[in-house]
Design brief:
By secondary structure, this protein is an alpha+beta fold. It has 24 helices and 13 strands. A hairpin with a 6-residue loop joins β5 (225-226) and β6 (233-234). The longest helix is centred in the N-terminal third of the chain and has 67 residues, at 98-164. Residues 98-125 form a coiled coil.
Length: 818
């Protein structure tokens, strides 16, 4: 998008300032102007012809032409796939205009279609001759065998008749032998090939239709035969059907056609048969040579197309998108200029004006395009300029809802908070290193993978590679805090602060250990691992830490709502939404966080559950041993009263003030300021529609505020409880890791058997990768996603905007590939 040096520094906190602009373009430079704006990719065109159908628009013919060329290119792509040239990415060749390309594509398509038709005819003839040759060979063998058997049988019967002829010989046999050959019944026959899977049904139907008055002989063809009609390899049988009479012949022919049996002529004359086999073999050789030459010519033609396919395809897509954009423009009164309206970032004004000037010069236009900024009350689109690192985090936010124009963007904070909350649940620096190395591999090979089509899962992992590498880095950090490396603790930052009372360590599990050194400097002391108190200690630590993190992030969300109200100059939201929300949340859960920190600092044994419960049930009772500091009871009463006051503070004043504000704004509505005639005409419809949306329903506003108040009050409790998932998933991850280490790896290590040890290591690796590095990663990712979408963003984020979708050739190419 333009030259890198001309772009201002990236700001993710709020979307780019946008402006509605109008461009008046002379007809002679319209095409080139839209082309240059497409290269720039910073102008979102509005459809000024939304009332017209696609066929009624000015450039419908050109779009139809581009569509026809795109169809021809798709045909070429299919041919390239057949030739195995789909992966060819070269895009060289001389520049060519759209008209020249249209003629060239037509010629090439006609040439390829003719070559394909000829090849198909030749291939079909070749396959038919192959089948005919098989019929001649197989049926010839059958006839030869039958004639040999008949001759041998006749010779044997004649010898038998001469030797044993007497009065006892059968009369019929004697009559049969003396019958005139010319008076014997002649049998007709049909030969061909039938698919083997239909041969049984073929035989059965023949028998039933002719009532058994046919004789069928089949011979199996060992190799697959290419069917001339279907063009696919099929298992077939050669058959010969003998029949008597014209009626039987017609039935046999119809059954052959019904079963897709290919029939071929056959002669029982041995000499003619050998001559036919020789002729067929010669024709097969000639056809094979012709087909090979045709295939070589077809391959060279497809190769020539493949060399320039990318260039042609890009040109057609580019031209089609240009004409689609031109169809969104309207004509001025003189019908000599096109008028475009759309959104663009304020910083892009200079670049757009330079592109318009360049288009005027390059198209030799006498009149330049006019760029003017319009004033409107319409909500602009939201545009965040991201790079390959921040885009994935922004996509996480956009999946929930696109930010309203210039409201505070959660994506800026998500870059840090999302991987950190993930790491709280995933904390293990061994697993984090594995995740880091896997993602680093994707990042180092991103140039290669970005140009390839990956699978669905791989595509998703590659798209979020920078999110995953941040998650892995934070997981290594939290793993150091939890002191877990595949659930094994290490004394990385010094020796443990605790030691046994005596060298034998007999009292370690009963009385406990004593502190002999300074507190372990960073993270959890490794001595906790494997002790009876490990689980209660880590439970308490992680549960309290989850509450602190949750309250901190919810406070951040409420603070961002203040910055939104300040930015949009909405004092009502500051005084009657931000302040009571801060008071309510921190009177209860901010106070709980304070108690947790005080308890950690003082080492008190106070029961925080008891303190919080009786703060509501019996606020005036003495705290006794649960008192953490002087004046705690009075502070609790004050905080409870503030929380109770904050609820009506949120509910009642805001609807009343909004109603009052609306009445003041529209008190002088009957008196409109004088405007020029042109401005009146232009803004008449906009003014009426705007006025129609300004009706104020006090009951609706009151109900909406009531729902919002109830949602916040109940959400403060449920959202805080929801952050306990950080504790639960962290504990589950730690325990699963410990189980795999102790019950698989250590158990296998205990056997003095190499085979069992190898099996144990393999099972441990697969369990770690499959469960902890894949399933647990996905689980922690989804829970972190929910904490951001629900617990964090609902405090300030409306997410009812719409994305800035500029006309850009780069975006058009990506959409076409998808």
């Amino acid at each position: 998008m333009g030259e890198g040096g001309s772009l201002p520094t990236m700001d993710l906190m709020r979307s780019e300032p946008m402006q509605l602009a109008r461009i008046i373009i002379p007809m002679e430079s319209a095409h080139r102007t839209i082309s240059y704006l497409g290269d720039l990719g910073l102008f979102q065109f509005k459809d000024l012809n939304s009332g017209k159908s696609p066929f009624q628009r000015t450039f419908a013919t050109q779009i139809k032409r581009c569509g026809e060329m795109a169809r021809k290119l798709r045909f070429f792509k299919v041919q390239m796939m057949k030739a195995g040239l789909l992966t060819l990415r070269s895009a060289y060749g001389s520049e060519i205009s759209l008209d020249e390309l249209e003629v060239k594509l037509g010629e090439l398509e006609a040439e390829l279609i003719e070559m394909n038709t000829n090849t198909e005819k030749l291939q079909r003839a070749y396959n038919e001759l192959l089948e005919y040759k098989l019929v001649l060979q197989k049926a010839g063998d059958f006839f030869h065998h039958a004639q040999s058997s008949a001759t041998a049988q006749q010779r044997e019967s004649e010898e038998h008749h001469l030797v044993e002829g007497s009065m006892d010989s059968p009369l019929l046999l004697e009559q049969e032998m003396t019958t005139d050959i010319s008076k014997q019944v002649k049998l007709g026959y049909v030969s061909g090939l039938v698919p083997r899977d239909k041969s049984m049904a073929f035989e059965r139907i023949l028998f039933r239709t002719t009532r058994g008055n046919v004789f069928l002989k089949q011979n199996v063809v060992e190799e697959h035969v290419v069917d001339p009609v279907q063009g696919e390899k099929v298992e077939k049988n050669v058959f010969v059907v003998f029949y008597s009479g014209e009626r039987a012949k017609n039935k046999v022919l119809k059954i052959c056609d019904a079963f897709g049996a290919n029939r071929y002529p056959f002669t029982d004359d041995i000499g003619k048969r050998y001559q036919m086999i020789t002729e067929v073999s010669g024709k097969l050789s000639e056809l094979k040579t012709t087909i090979d030459v045709g295939t070589l010519h077809w391959s060279s033609a497809v190769q020539a197309i493949a060399n320039q396919f990318e260039q042609w395809n890009n040109l057609v897509k580019k031209e089609k998108s240009i004409y689609h954009t031109l169809n969104a423009l309207s004509f001025d009164v003189t019908k000599k200029c096109l008028v475009a309206e759309g959104w663009c970032p304020v910083f892009a004004t200079t670049q757009i004006q330079k592109a318009l000037q360049r288009a005027t010069v390059d198209s030799n236009s006498q009149v330049g395009a006019i760029f003017e900024v319009l004033h409107t009350k319409e909500s602009p689109p939201t545009y965040f300029r991201t790079n390959k690192f921040t885009s994935a985090f922004q996509e996480i936010v956009d999946a929930y809802g696109v930010a309203k124009y210039q409201e505070a963007n959660p994506g800026l904070f998500t870059i840090v908070t999302f991987p950190f909350l993930f790491a709280v649940m995933f904390g293990d620096w061994g697993h984090g290193i594995c995740l880091f190395l896997a993602t680093l591999f994707l990042i180092l090979r991103e140039k290669k993978y970005s140009s390839q089509k990956l699978g669905d899962i791989m595509e998703m992992a590659f798209g979020g590679r920078y999110v995953i590498i941040m998650m892995s880095i934070f997981s290594i950090y939290t793993g150091f805090i939890y002191n877990e490396f595949f659930s094994v603790p290490f004394e990385l930052f010094g020796r443990s602060a605790y030691d046994c009372r005596d060298p034998s360590c007999r009292d370690a599990t009963t009385i406990g250990m004593i502190k002999v050194r300074e507190t372990y400097p960073f993270g959890v002391d490794p001595i906790w691992h494997g002790t009876r108190s490990e689980l209660p200690f880590l439970n308490s630590l992680k549960m309290k830490m989850s509450i602190l993190l949750g309250v901190a992030q919810m406070n951040l969300g409420i603070v961002l709502s203040y910055f939104n109200a300040k930015f949009f100059q909405n004092d009502i939201n500051i005084w009657y939404q931000f302040i009571p929300q801060m008071i309510f949340l921190n009177s209860l859960f901010g106070y709980l966080s304070l108690l947790i920190i005080v308890k950690w600092c003082t080492g008190s044994q106070a029961d925080l559950y008891h303190v919080m419960i009786y703060m509501f049930l019996s606020p005036t009772d003495d705290l006794g041993e649960n008192q953490l500091f002087w004046g705690q009871k009075y502070l609790q009463i004050l905080l409870l009263l503030l929380a109770l006051v904050a609820v009506p503070w949120m509910l009642i004043p805001k609807p009343i003030l909004l109603k009052k504000q609306h009445e003041e704004r529209h008190r002088g509505q009957a008196y409109a300021p004088l405007q020029s005639l042109d401005e009146n005409i232009d803004s008449d419809s906009e003014y009426k529609s705007h006025d129609g949306h300004e009706e104020f329903e006090f009951s609706e506003v009151l109900v909406h505020q009531l729902i919002h108040t109830i949602e916040f009050v109940l959400g403060s409790v449920s959202n805080t409880a929801s952050y306990l998932r950080l504790w639960a998933l962290s504990l589950a991850h730690s325990e699963l890791s410990s189980v795999f280490y102790e019950k698989v790896l250590l158990l296998a290590w205990g056997f003095d058997n190499v085979v069992i040890l190898v099996i144990g290591i393999i099972v441990f690796i697969f369990a770690t990768v499959g469960v902890l590095l894949v399933m647990e990663t996905l689980s922690a990712f989804l829970h972190a996603l929910r904490l951001h979408w629900v617990e964090f963003q609902n405090k300030f984020y409306e997410g009812d905007g719409y994305k800035f979708s500029p006309f850009s050739f780069a975006l058009v190419s990506e959409e076409e590939e998808d």
